[in-house]
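WARN retry 2 of 3 for item q-0093 after timeout on previous attempt; input resubmitted unchanged.
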Amino acid sequence: MIYKNLKLLGLTLLIAGSTIAATPALAQEKLRIALDTNPVHVRNKGVDIFVAELKKRTGNRFAIEVYPSGQLFRDRDVPRALRQDALEMAVPGTWQLDGAEPNAALQGLPMFYGVTGDTVHKIMDGKLGDFLNKKFEERMRVKVLGKWMDLGGQHLFFINKEVKDYPDMKGLKIRYPSGTANAQRINTLGGTAIMVPWPDVPLGMSQGIMDGLVTTYESSASSKLMDSGLKFALEDYQQHNQYVPMMRANFFNKQPKDVQQAILESWDIAATAERKSATGAQAVAKVNLVKAGLKVVVATEEQKLAARRKLMQGQPELVKSIKMDQDVVDEALKNLKAAGIAY
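OK item q-0093 returned
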């Protein structure tokens, strides 16, 4: 009888132990991350670092699924997906967000035209960036995890026509990703802006839908745009592109404090590493594209200043049409002038 009781007790403990051991797996929370660039893109690689760092700190707490190449949502659809609880995290470009938060268009305004990454970081890593992060959090019900990742300098690229100066763009259909300011810049400089989502760009190029596009060296290389007919570039720093790390607020807020801290620490490590990688990736991509036959014309400082002055004439009306906060625009312009940008 004693033996039977001991055997029953042992079986009970074994079942209980199995249940406890299985609990972490059963309790895993799904963490879906949507990106619309491909797995070898610098943003995706940065997110891979975040995932690895988060797993180090939280073990198997999250079932993390990264969806590249727009498989789950494209950047333009991310704000709605986050609001509707259809997604836990994304890292969209600022140029995709002005529909949800008008001030997201700040870096795309004429005053930022021709401004390189170092200056952008000095300005946006401070109070202006904090202001925008709060706006994103309020409007989109998200938690911004920290510093923004870099894509890098955005330039003009062309398929069949070499463009050495802006008058050469007249009549050319130029693809832009999104953003009112991006469209106005292209149209003001002489082109005709057309919006094409990034995953559709290679097909659009090969089918003649566009004559050129605004993008970066790294994006051109990682998406193999030379195979789709890319031949020329005008390097002019249309905009320094950055990505904003957004996690759904109700997902982040329900996590214990130690897990929240782990998420923030993991992001900081990933974003710091990604910025360095992005700078190097752009340089390497340019070298490789030139080796593959891309012909690059570097815009002179005189050309960029003339273009910036022309673009600035339309900035007041652009700010009004986007419904941006004028005090934010004024503060950014003051900081840019203090950094030595001429107008």
